[in-house]
């Protein structure tokens, strides 16, 4: 509920203005049948032209007021809704871009779009519910003035109906949450399959991947249909009950008119209010379903926002290269926790992840990301990263267009372009995590020597830290540090460790 409460509080002034204006609109709507009834009794029945003109004029002013109130109220609410939806998307994006994040792409997609929209719709729901309550209250007062029993039907029947319908809200929340979870899983799997289509074809795993996606998509369809049936059944029940309540009021009023307990104008008022009450009754009856959907989406957003704390004091990296040093690090367990220690956002430090990220654009645009980098040294970078072969493979060269995420390139090509981008940035400390796992042995040796020659010429003050188990890369480092469970267990050159440390040989020379 924290996400929904924050949405209300940070849009409180627009929300307050929207509630007042929408409430005024609904109150005016409820007053229309009352004025029409009074017009019949006081003007039409008496045959007074002056009274008729007066009451028609009042009706005209009432319509002007309700129209103006609705337009201005809706404008305030739509602005608040759009701003809140945008704010939620930014919050989700900021969290999933955290280097500690491990959110699936499909989850990110559904949470930052569908769930952000559903949660922000609360800003629209609150004024509509307030307006429905205002309309019901004005109608109940008007009916009580005409006949106390008619007013009591509204005042007692409405809360009873709402309490009864509210019991279905938890079920709706659960099923909507399941639907969103499974839909995110299906979207994530689809994204992964499209990205890895070339490798899947290479190993002949298309049919297995197709079967897996078919299974997940069917599960998503079942969850969607179950949630839709639940919401549809609830909507049908709420509409039926609301209609029966309004019909009951109209039938009771007809009986009172036949027995002479109310006038013709009062009958018209009651019939008009009974017809009008279908709208606020429907809104109040549907409110539990709306809030349940908003809450389910808000819970999914809150889960993302809680997953990785925004502020956390980071520990110091356990090992750092000295000025001009090329340092190799062999981590015998998962290296992801180690890499997070170097990613402090400093412009002097660049951490190049193992899984390279490319975006739609040209090869040039994927390598040269800032004006500071520019074209200076581009040829040397392309040679050091062996990316010049990727450029030469396309007639357009550096201007060759790349699809989103580089899906048309091989894994080795993506790695080389990402490495070229990192080398061109020339950070004081460059941290590389297994930058050559998708290239052949000959290319790997060329890249290892290229990194060494580019960044560690005589007199260089640049530091490079390579987290890897590749012998080719470790062979060009000045020093190798072996880590186990966050602790340094061995230090030396690649040659000395390979000769004297059986554990090192088992990890690296396998």
From TrEMBL:
Cell compartments where the protein resides: Cell membrane
Domain ABC transporter, first and last residues per copy: 228-510
Chain segments annotated as transmembrane: 49-70, 129-156, 234-258, 270-291
Keyword Disulfide bond (UniProt): no
Domain of life assignment: Bacteria
Topology in the lipid bilayer: Multi-pass membrane protein
Broad class of where this protein is predominantly found: membrane
Domain ABC transmembrane type-1 intervals: 16-285
Alphabetic keyword roster: Membrane, Transmembrane, Transmembrane helix
Protein name in the entry: ABC transporter transmembrane domain-containing protein
